[in-house]
Specification:
Number of helices: 27
Number of domains: 2
Distance between the termini: 80 Å
Helix content: over 70%
Structural class: mainly alpha
Order of helices and strands: HHHHHHHHHHHHHHHHHHHHHHHHHHH
Radius of gyration: 25 Å
Number of strands: 0
Shape: globular
Length: about 625
Amino acid sequence: MTTSNRSHAASASRLCDRSGRGLARLVATLEWLGAGILAALFLVVMAAVLRRYVLGGGLVWSDELAIWLNVALVAVGAPLAATSALAMRLDVIVRLLPERGQRLAAIFADAVAVHGSLVLAIGGASVAALVGGTSTALGLPESWRFAAFAIGGGLTVLVVIWRASLDRSPRAALASLVLGIALYLAAQSATGLFVPTPSLVAAIAAGLGLLLGAPLPYALLAGVSLTGAVGGLLPEPAIVQNTVSGVSKFLLLAIPFFLLAGELLTAGGLAERLVRFAAALVGHLRAGLAQTALVSSVLFSGASGSSVANAAFGAKVMAPTLVARGYPPAHAAAIVAGVSMLDNIIPPSIAFLILATATNLSVGSLLVGGFVAGGVLALALAIGIHLSVRDVVDAQPKASGQERARSFVGALPAIGLGVVVVVGIRFGIVTTTEASALAVAYALFTCLGLRSLNAGTVFNSLRKSATEAAAVGMLIGASAPFAFLLALDRVSDQMAGLVTALGGGPYAVMLLANLVLLVAGLFLDIGAAILLLAPLLLPVAISAGLDPIQFGVILVINLMIHGLTPPLGILVYVVAGITRVPAGAVFRAVLPLLASLLVALALLCLGAAAWPSLPPSFKDLF
């Protein structure tokens, strides 16, 4: 290499380093801005709670301000939802391609992300310019909500292309940008074609984007946008309006608060106290440490509501201990992933909050159903662990009554959080959102009182929770226009007709619904599947005489099981990534637990299908 070539390479390397640091600063700024918005959101809701229940009055502006802050949080996190580990990309199929194919797929995936981002940026700007009026309580211009999404969409284009330039090459980034703009322009053009079911076009386009590795929220937005070229009835401004409306719901504020409460418990060391209490209860049994992981997950479920958070905690705390006790690494990872699915079943559950948002079902009733179903699933997992762990002897001496009592007292602060939340919601003492804010206050003051948190860990918990909440919120918002298309095409009526053709009884409906969910769960994120399929399947279930709450619980269980199945298997990928065990090995090791969960699902489905025919006197017992 000549001197000039070496100088050019060194200059390019320095430029790349500066560019990387610039992107890192931008991402960090967005994360901390999200943390600040989340902190403000918490203070607003807590002020309203204190005013209502302590001073006996209300703040007329608090609910509206909280909703607007949540919209801002999602808009700020939109770029992170496209490029971070929370981007919800399906890259299993792409990884099977040769290297050249992977590069091309990455270009197309980023182009889809650019297309979806342009829909938000340009569509949001259009709505902001057209909409008039001010909000009811705050008196702020309504255009601001849409302007926030326009800014978020523009920043997403910048971050996606900047990331592509660093990870691949400037030429590949430019190709993604040009292709994304071309897709956007194609969606705005009138082709003269007319498709009677535009939702099918949207589903195919979004599915192709997902298979190429595009982030799911932006694949959904791009898919809906492309229906405009074939006679779709949802123009770009309407897409953005649906997206903003999708995240402008007070109930959704509970999601960032539950994520934050779980993060504070983990950072404050209370989750480890739950592990010690679980070990005192079941550590002496066969496969005692694996059963400890299960009981810990059950206890942690009452505080977190997030299976991903539990999987990450278990991968860091439980998996290394399991391996040290003689469990094969893949088996240890599989146990952690398997038991983590309970967090979205046992209350409080973020999945139930999403379901209630999509269907208007009672959150309190869903939580009660989650307790019952969670107990059945926990028993099934205990049996699965007992039968599958044969060559590992890890039972510890049986804890004395005094040791159990001491560990219980130590775990009480964490257990108390779940009790406060569930009791408050179930008996109507507080709303779901208020309960989630109280959960944050409880976790914060408890950990500070125990001196297990400091300002740095609190701020880091805010940053991490805000990023996760923005990713979930972006998915909910992007699913809204897609769900609207499904409603326009009367897909639920077509599904009802199919069920009637197969037999409209509760058993036939339950069987068909589970088949649909089992297939959809292989390719859709859990949240997206709930948002898209629950409004379609629930009316059919109700018409067949099924109890809507029981059906909703079964729907969530079915989709949560897919956290353990390829190709998505988010729980497996989280644990595999942290433990550095190949995901394929974990998928194979989790099969016994998966089988036990499917048996439990079948039993719950049979019970729900038989429920309408049971005598009223028997139902009254429950």
